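Subject line: Sequence and fold of a protein, written as structure tokens
Area: Proteins and the way their chains fold up in space.
Start of record: The labelled sequence and token lines come straight after this line.
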Amino acid sequence: MSALQFDAPSHTYTLDDQPVWRSVTGVLKAAGLIDFAGVPGGVLEAARTRGTIVHQAIHFYNERDLDVAAFGADFPDYAGYLEAWITFCQAREFRSVLCEHRVASRRLNIAGTIDCLGVLDGRAALIDFATGDPANVAKDLQTAGYLLLAREWAPEDPAIALFLEAHPVVSRYAVQLRADGRCSIEAYTNPTDTRSFLALVEAQRVVAARGIVRDEVCL
């Protein structure tokens, strides 16, 4: 059994059978960079359901294990999002190598799940896709956190190690998928993104050390 495990119903990670301190998205939530407090419950639940179904569909598509026509018939409201991903892959010549891949940092005691590591237009890319606006969930810092964890987890994960050995330089992107089948891509090139993510982690450890508990710290 892998040292890193993920429980989907509770959306929690364990490392060596112990809960991790936070996830990458948990860090961003605790910092207030992901905040849906003002969104009506019904709207938020619908968005979560949509995101889950679309992520699963893309995962199976990337693994060449999805009947696209059947998905469209079963989930007509979400078919456009999958179409947008397919259009992106074909237009930008994206090839997924690792999909929905879990990574962690023992040093930080943080874990997360990378949407896609692959090759985009001939170059290595870490891609996070979303059915909403990437800016609303700090995808720049989220992708920086994932790439940081991937590099630290590589010694324990042969698949990650192999990818990073072949591709020392990895660019970060967010792909926004829309219901009408269109997509847009945003590249994150700010070299301070990783430093900013680590600053959030350190600040939250200072707060936690003073006994101040925030909600959703392990989400």
